[in-house]
Amino acid sequence: MSEYDYDLFVIGAGSGGVRASRIAASHGAKVALAEEYRVGGTCVIRGCVPKKMLVYGAHFAEDLHEAARFGWDVNDPKFVWQRLRDIVQTDIDRLEGLYGNTLSSHNVKLFEERATVAGPNEVKLASGQVVTAGKILIATGGWPVPAQCEGAEHALTSNEIFHLEQVPGRLLVVGGGYIANEFAGIFHAFGSDVTILNRSDVLLRSYDQEIVARLVELSKEKGINFHFKASLQKIEKQADGSLHVGFNDGTNADYDTILVATGRAPNSAGLGLEEVGVKLDKSGAVIVDEYNQSSVPSIYAVGDVTNRVQLTPVAIREGHAFADTVFDNNPRIVDYDAIPSAVFASPPIASVGLTEAEASAKYGDDIKIYRSDFRPMKNVVSGREERGLYKMITAGSDEKVIGLHLIGPESSEIIQGAAVAVKAGLSKQAFDDTVALHPSMAEELVLLK
User: Fold this and answer.
1) Phi-psi region for residue 191, left (φ > 0), alpha (ψ -120 to 50) or beta?
2) How much is the pLDDT for 2?
C-alpha cells in the first residue's frame, strides 16, 4: 500500500493535465485531479476551440458576398451574433462533458474546486481537505494579462469576449500577437469597425516579417485600422456606455468595446509553489528540466504554466511524456524543434521552422529564399485581388528546408503535411521531385522559385 492518498495529484484540468492524468492512470497510478472552473482548460473552454468556431462563422462574410460569382443568389443575408455565440457555448458544454467522461473512464478522481500546494507531497483543497500524493503535477496554464492603465476595469480580455451581448460597433483591440489579430479579423467580418493598437510597429514578432507585412497590407485593404507606437493611458466610461480612450501619444478616441490581448502570463499565483521551494522565473513560470521536474523533486509542471511553448499540442505532449517517464519507467522528452503554428487571421498565416531573420542569424549567407506570390483560383473567380505568399528558406549546399511560411486561404491546413518534411530534414530537391496536386494552392509548395 502507498503511504500517500494518491500516486499523482494534478492541479489543472486543461489539455496537459487531462492527458497526464489519463496516461498515468493507464499505467496503473492512482490519480486525482482538481479544477476550480471547468474541465477542458483554456483551449476548450475559452481559447482555441471556441475561437476557431468564430473563425468559421466569420468566413461566411466574404463567401456570401462573393457567392453570386459562383452562381449562387443569396438575398439579403443577415448575421445574428447571439445565435452563433450560443451555439458555440453549447458545443463547449459538449466537449467539457467528453473530457469529464475521459477522466471518469480512467478512474481519475475529480475534485471540482481550487487546490493549492501545501507541501512537497500535500495538496490543500478549497473545502479545507488535505490530500497527499507521491507526485504533484502543476498544469494550471496561462491567464490573460489585463490592461495596465486607469480605467482598466472597463476593458475585456479573451476570456470574456466570447460572451458579448452584441457585436460592438467600434472595437479597439490592444496587442500585436495572434489573439489580437485573430479577433480583429473575426469581429471585422461580423461588422465591427476594428482598430488594432500596438505599442510598436511590429506585429506577430515570432513570425516571418515578410509574411506579416502581407497580412497588415491585406488587413488595411479590408478596412481594419492600425494605431502603432501607442498604448492605453486612460479609459473612461461615458454616460451612453461608450468608452473614451486616451493614448500615450496624446490622441484619443471613442469605442464601444476594448479587447486587451497583450499576452498571457503563467497562472501560478497563489498556488503555494514558492512557499514549498518551487522556483519560478520573473514571469511566474515554473522552472522545470527536460523531464518537466521542478526544483522540488516530487513536483512537476507541464503546459503554459512553464512558459516554454504556449501551444495546446505541446502541453499534451508534455503531459504524456511526464506520465510515461514517471509512471511507466520510460523516460521521454519533448522535441521542440520545428513546431508548426498558425494565426487564424483573414487570411491565415502558417509557419514551421526558422524565419528569414532567424535563419540569417544562424547560417549567415548560407541560406536561400524561394517564394511563390500568387492569386488563388478562388480569388480570381470571385474577383478578389487578394494574393497569397509562400516562402521557403533553405540552408547549406544540399538546400535543407529549415523554414516554411505561408499566408493565404487554408494555409493552416496545408502547413501540417509540409511540417513533416521540415521535421524530417528534407531538401528543396525533395519538394521539387514531388508531383504537384493540381489545381490546388498546396501545389505552390513544390513549384517555388
Assistant:
1) left
2) 74
Q: What is the DSSP string of 224-288?
A: -EEEES--EEEEEE-TTS-EEEEETTS-EEEESEEEE-S-EEE--TTSSTGGGT--B-TTSPBP-
In a domain? residue 1: no
Residue 394 three-state SS: strand
151: alpha, beta or left? (left if phi > 0; alpha if psi -120 to 50): left
Q: Report the pLDDT value the prediction gives residue 246, as an integer from 0 to 100.
A: 97
Same domain, 133 and 167: no
Q: Are residues 111 and 32 in the same domain?
A: yes
Average pLDDT value for the chain: 96
Is residue 332, in this structure, part of any structural domain at all? no
Of residues 154, 244, 405, 438, which has the active-site annotation?
A: 438
Q: 451612453: which residue's cell? A: 240
CA dihedral 207, 210, 212, 216 (to 10 degrees): 170
**Annotated catalytic residue 438:** yes
Check whether residue 235 and residue 379 sit in a common domain: no
The verdict on residue 334 lying in a domain is: no
Range(s) of the domain holding residue 282: 6-144+265-327
Q: What is the mean pLDDT of residues 101-112?
A: 96
Q: Which helix (H) or strand (E) holds 89?
A: helix 81-105
Taking only the tens place, the pLDDT of each residue in 110-124 is: 999 999 999 999 999
219 and 271 share one domain: no
Q: What is the pTM of this model?
A: 0.95
